[in-house]
Amino acid sequence: MTLPNGWEMVVGLEVHTELLTKSKLFCGCANHFGAEPNTNICPVCLGLPGSLPVLNREAVDFAMRIGMALHCTIAPSTFHRKNYFYPDQSKDYQISQYDLPINSGGYLDLPDGSRVTIERAHMEEDTGKSTHLGGSGRLAGADSSLVDYNRCGVPLVEIVSGPDIRSSAQARAYAGELRGILIATGASDGRLEEGSMRFDANVSIRKSGAPFGTRCEIKNLNSLRSLQRAIEYEALRQVELIEEGGVVRQETRHWDENLGETSTLRVKEDADDYRYFRDPDLVDLAPDQAWQDRVRAALPPMPAERRGLVVALLGEPSEAQLDAVEVVIDLGLEKYVHAVVDAGSDAALAVARAANEIAADVDHVDNLSVEAFVTTLTMEQRGELSATQAKTVLAELLAHGGDPRAIAADKGFEQLSADSLGATVATLIASNPDEWTRYRDGDEKLAQFFIGQVMKLTKGQANGKAVIAELQARR
Amino acid sequence: MKSAMQIAADVRSGVSSASAELERTLAVVEQRNAELNVFLYVDVDGARAAASVIDSRIARGENVGALAGVPIAIKDNLCQVGIPTTCSSKILEGWRPPYNATVLDKVIAAGAVPVGKTNLDEFAMGSSTENSAFGPTRNPLDPSRVPGGSSGGSAAAVAADMTSISLGSDTGGSIRQPAALCGLVGVKPTYGLVSRYGLIAFASSLDQIGPFSKTVTDSALLLEVLAGHDPKDSTSLPEAAPSLVVHVDDGVAGKRIGLVRELYQGADDSVVASVHAAAQALRAAGAEIVEMSIPELGLTLSAYYLIAPAEASSNLARFDGVRYGLRVKADDVTAMMEATRTAGFGAEVKRRIMLGTYALSAGYYDAYYGQALKVRTLTIDAFARAYQQVDLLLGATTPSVAFAFGDKTADPMAMYLNDVFTIPTNLAGDPALSVPFGTGEGNLPVGVQLLGPGRSEAQLFAAARVLEIADGRP
Q1: A98: which chain B residues are within 8 Å (Cβ-Cβ)?
Q2: What ipTM, to 2 d.p.?
Q3: Judged by CB atoms within 8 Å, which residues 93-122 of A form the interface with B?
């Protein structure tokens, strides 16, 4: 989407990601989504009087991995208190990093070649979760509120981009690429629907090349689709407002997914004064070189590098193939593709089967050995299995594991011998003289007719390529 | 009254028993607590059970630790499992901690018997224990006067011979000042030497837990038990606990001790006289006394009254009626929080929350909190320079002896000035102690203060022991 009348949007994203640590940021409680309310709590995350926070080293490992993957500088950092009263925040302050974050000054390259700078990626603790009963469903006006502190103290990293994004599609691509990176680092499971990642978008508009306009922040977007829609809506709202002679007010806005619009949450003038100051209960965090080296050495390849390796196998891939590659990278299936290619079979077929058949049952991917995948695709390519049969074998392998040859035999997927296929084709030519004549005269579409007839007669056991070979031989 | 050292020796050897020592304590508490208001809660059943366990362990020949069977009083801002812990505030009404402060675990592991929780200025904010929501504590040496504060109850417990030792906390003088006013030894250890886990925070960067006792040796004994790294407190020092008792009689021969003008000028004549007499006694024991001035110390009171309230304004935010303690019902959550805090906090606590909130506010941070942090850095540097010249410093603990009730309550500044000599070490994070030396008005005790660089507690105890002997308590 482009904005009308030469307007350009300027977008920066703040992305919160929960870290996949075993325990919370400052205590030993389990960091686990979906437990019974108020079961993963202790004096520290409940903020009981006298309790003190102790920093979780595993969370620092993950934060550094994220920083390294985003080409950030890792520097000595400190923890501050962000003070505000809210019932789901057990201490009525949040421990966060302020002027000295652990990661700063990085960048993220998008698949289209554009680069978005990363201003900082800092650590902080999550809040609990309130449920407001009665009234509007928000805090104000509710009859009563219930608070679950299980999430209170769960480690977060907030990744703040520069104001470098110029379209909603680019914002979505950035968020998607960042999600892939977070998954690759092992820091996050990337499950947007569980709130593992949440997006805030700062949106302003300007005439191309002009100074930045006043920005509005859209809070708590929790899917890539809402992110894109909210940014589009907000940019257009600002264009209309200005063109009608209005002025954009700096404010925080709420995205309503159902209405498809943003609305004012609070304006800057009544924004809280968070009274940030160094948390005197915590000491400075300065990971030494050995610690940083250990983390860097354990860092796996990032999506961009992995994507490059798979795309290279495809020569000049189509759009559809590039989409399939994204699925393969997103789900971490490229080892299957590389193994097929190493065995001398077709990369395109491997990408297609991985992006469709494996992806369809990716929860059971552990049942499918790389060897079994290679064997199945080799059989398909040699004509020993039809495409339909190969898909069936893969589905069975994913469901229960096993040996592809045994599964094929068990299902009666014996390929027809060449003699038997030849006889079938000859019979069909004899009984369909008109079609045969048209095919012989160059109407290639009729190949499909004959393949369909062969399949019908052989109950799907024939290989389409082998049928075409038989037809060609008789042309 | 026997010392803790003596009680532990008697209990270990069978001359006495933990139960007998406890009953003696309970009898004195019974006799004097109504008048003095020392204990807010006496855990009679729990203490009796603990004492009897210690006695049976001793009967089985087990080693029960350095404080075997010693009754100990606990300031009521330290968490103890299942025991009401109030900080002398209505806002913690009904709250019983589900966990022990690390120092509670430590004294219990050393064989001590916690007797109950002692009165304090609400949230440790005050210098007279008059700010308690549960009434003031009286000074056992003269019940018409304050015991000092904020650890007034813990000081009075020892001064009234209820217990031989007690635990206090010191943010700007809250152990040393009541120790001085009650004629006791009181120690503010090096920041990080004693774990703060389970101490309900007033100002986290300044708070330290420490001992009260009548003798120097008992404080050394108790601090040995309290000290040491705690993985639950990030600001806890990594080093092992120091040996202190064995160094108590090391003396001061050859030591250089700075007599610091800013640490006694402006005090009452009797206090100044005691400080000079203490210097003379140390000189007589072989120390070299160096008269010196540390002008930066004149800035510390103002800096303290920005830093401590700033931290307190954040530390005390959690008392909002949502999870524990007092809740005053109201129409919505915000109104409930406001009503709860309005009803639950006393005037001094509210004053400091407002002061601290202001000092941290946008537009004022640099002028107030930021400026105070600079003064703190100057103070740290000034002390460090002083300790390049001398081993220890000497001054007064308080400007006067114990004062009468109501004397300073009308004017907060007058009350704050009581801490003018004790605050500098809290800002620096260094250790200091108060030891009785001489008397002043009304024949009441005067405390002199010894200060040292980080982890110099053994030297401080040795110097204090010299003064203790010179003051006629061999």
Answers
A1: none
A2: 0.96
A3: 93
